Every structure is written in C-alpha cells, then in structure tokens.
Write the structure tokens for this entry.
Amino acid sequence: MSYSIKASYSITALLCLVLFGCDQPVGQQGGDSPYDFAMAQAEEQFQAAKDRCDNLSHDQKDICLENAQAKFQRDKENANAMNTARNPRITATSPQRHAEYEAALKECERLSGDSYQECIDRVKEDIQL
C-alpha cells in the first residue's frame, strides 16, 4: 500500500515537473535570485510609471518623470542592497537622495518669488546630500 502511494506521488511530481516546471518555488523559477526579481520588478514599475506620465502635460509630465526616476533609483539601490554583503544602506543613500533631491527641485520650478525660495530651502533641509 505504501508503494502505491509513493508511486502516485512520484507520478504527480513528474507530471508537475514536465507540464508546469514545478521543480523550484514560484519566486525562484528560472534561477532568479531575489536581486534579479527585485530588479525586474523595479524596471516593470518604472516602465508603467513612464507610461502613466505620457498622458500628462508639459510641467506635470516632467515632474512625474522625475518622481518615477527617483523611485526607480531607490528601488535599484534597494535591490543592490540585497545583493551586497556589507552594510548596504551606506552605499544606497547617496544616489537615492540625489534622485529625490532632483525630483523635489523640479517641483519647486513651478513656483516663483518667495514661495520658490521657501520650496528650495525646504528641499535642502529635508534632503541633505
């Protein structure tokens, strides 16, 4: 009786392997590491964000693209942090902050006069490079 159960399990496993490629967990199929998965996901999200930005007008589109680029940079640095044995947050901060700084400055460009200067000062205070 136990022989038929083992045979049934083996046949099921073999069918799963042949038909569906179930030899690895779902997140690890194709030999993708967590880093590869995170990078692919970041690129997909960046492409989707760029597509959403295409529907906007001039200044709004520029701001949208800057924010999408900043998020993509942050996601890439987080993926690189998963792939680094040393303290990953130290290396991730500089490019991430720079991208966020550029996106925030782009938003300030819409303003003029004192409100523009206040926006610039707030950005410099919030995002220290």
Notes: The mean pLDDT is 74.
